[in-house]
Amino acid sequence: MSLGRRARRTLLLLVAAGALAACGIPTTGVVQAGGPASGIMPTARLYFVREGTLTAVRRTTDAPGDVESALQALLRGPTDAERSKGLTTRLPLLGVVPSTATAVPGYGGATTAAEPPGWADLVKVTARDHRISVELSGALSQVHDPRLAAEQIVCTADAAQRTAAPGAAPDPVTVTLPAGSRVEKIATTCPVT
How many domains are there within the chain? Predict the structure, then answer.
């Protein structure tokens, strides 16, 4: 058999094999099967209360390791799904802050009835020199259980800080509650679940 004949024969076999492989298989466009692969979603650990004790929950976040973002989520309270599991909070919730406050001294100036107070008017977070300070404005309602409310803040702030610096020792957290009482604590007994 000549080289030309062998090449033609090989070419015909390849074409025939290709035709057989495609036989009966319709062409399809892009098949949607869910969202794109995303890897591990960043989470923040927030601390709520169940039956008088702290319970950690994980929430997805755009800002893992940011103490202020974690505390904002905490002060919005448990979700409906979390409440159905018996989780509550001892903290005043940002969503139920009255919009009729006229002034919040030391928290961004005056607010009017038409303009509800914002985060900066209600919570002041300072993280420096290996210390975290959290001050809740008097515009937030009275805290019902100051000890447990402070522990919610301390553990949530510490969890965010540990996300940012996993091997670091816990920073002391000072919490000033709306009534003016202050609690300083290092998060050493926060549940991890």
Answer: 1
